Amino acid sequence: MNPWNTDVRVKCNLKSDKLYKMLCQIEQSLKYIREYITLFDVDIKMALDYLIYWFYGQLNEIGNNVNNINLFHNKVTKYMNDEFPELQDYLNKKYIKSYNIKVLQNKKKLYDFLNYYIYIKDMLSKGRNNQDYCNYIGYIFKLYKEIHDDYNSMNSGWYDDEIELFKTKFSDVDKEINLLEEKCPHINLNLIFDKNNKSIRLIEQEKSKEKVEKTFESIKTIPQV
User: Fold this and answer.
1) Which of 24, 113, 122, 148 could pair with 203 in a Cys bridge, judged by C-beta atoms 3.0 to 4.6 Å apart?
2) Long-range CB contacts (< 8 A, 24+ apart) of 5-8?
């Protein structure tokens, strides 16, 4: 059954408020998603992960109104739990109810990039639009580095899934470095990779060490009694 038949479209489009129209569309989509998962033999958690990140992207459409964000989060989690009660624990853990839309947008950007990176590498190897792809990779590398500067978000664990996925995608460090040095020589690979040890930089540990060193330096400046 098509969730976007005429009756459903009319029902959702009758909603005058943009947020409620969006929530109507999400609710109708979730009602039929299991049917499509079965039809196309898609991994159910993978499909729901994709939807969750799509939901994060939709939040950008409703602005920074806290009440609207709260309503969106509550409605979306209810819709998902109603349709997939057997995955309630997984969904409640996976879906991040952050009121910081920037965090959720960053999560989506990282997720989208990491899921398409295999195709990006293929395009680089074929020499197609290398500058565009290289700029995209460079942007994501900077974003990956920048999220580690957001201490509160990092400490909350909001980026844990994306960081683990990033490490998995770039686990063959030597191979990735060789490809990017050849195809995208202008990218600052030192942001992400420790070339000497052929590993992904342990940015979390570097940040913690830097914080301790700064604290120690501050203590040394305190006048002795």
Assistant:
1) 148
2) none
